[in-house]
Amino acid sequence: MANELSTLIGVVLGAVLSYLVGMLNDRTRWRREHGARWDGLLLQAYSDYGQAIKECVVAYQRLAAHQGLTEDPTPVEPTNDALEQAAQAETKRAAMTEPLRLLADPTTAAAVRSLNDAVWHLEWMARGRLTGDAATWDQAYREYRTARQTFYDKARASLQVPGGVIAERASWPPSWRASG
């Protein structure tokens, strides 16, 4: 009888332990899969936002070049069509910011706010809402590049991506282009 009881206790204990180990494994797998899914969504949100920022800045740089604030190989006159394209880029940037409000950690969200501010500064200059000269534009553009670098650094850290962002060109125009 004692042997049967100890065997029964061993079977029950083994079943309980097997159940607990299986439950812990399932929970760990669920957390890993859940984390990977959120990381994928976050990576896409960061990427979409970065592209939207770039579209805005390209539009603003082309408008600013027409005013003589900067150089661009394709300056654009502030026609209704050009201003509408810039407005569409801004609308896309605003839309791409929303997922980051939900998904980004606080330090990356702060970097997003700073980058948005820097891009708006360029927009206001490009649209003539703020007066300035080439030196003012250059300063605002440097602030944008710094804010963009900070955003990418924070985004990479939040995703635990090793390495670093490709370094920016130190100056413009590039050395291969003749000045003048």
**Low-pLDDT residue intervals, each spanning 5 or more residues:** none
Order of helices and strands: HHHH
Span between N and C termini? 102 Å
Look at the structure and give the mean pLDDT: 86
Strand content: under 5%
Q: What's the story with the biggest beta sheet?
A: none
Number of strands: 0
What overall geometry do the principal axes of the alpha carbons give? elongated
**Tally of helical runs:** 4
Rg, rounded, reads 27 Å
Quaternary assembly? single chain
Helix content: over 70%
Structural class: mainly alpha
Give the gist of this structure.
Helices cover 76% and strands 0% of the residues. It is an all-alpha fold.
Give a structural overview.
Helix content is 76%, strand content 0%. Helix 1 (2-66) packs antiparallel against helix 2 (80-103) and helix 3 runs antiparallel to helix 4 (134-159). The N and C termini lie far apart (102 Å). It is built from 4 helices and no strands. With 180 residues, the protein is mainly alpha-helical. It is elongated, with a radius of gyration of 27 Å. The longest helix is centred in the N-terminal third of the chain and has 65 residues, at 2-66. It has helices spanning 2-66, 80-103, 106-126, 134-159.
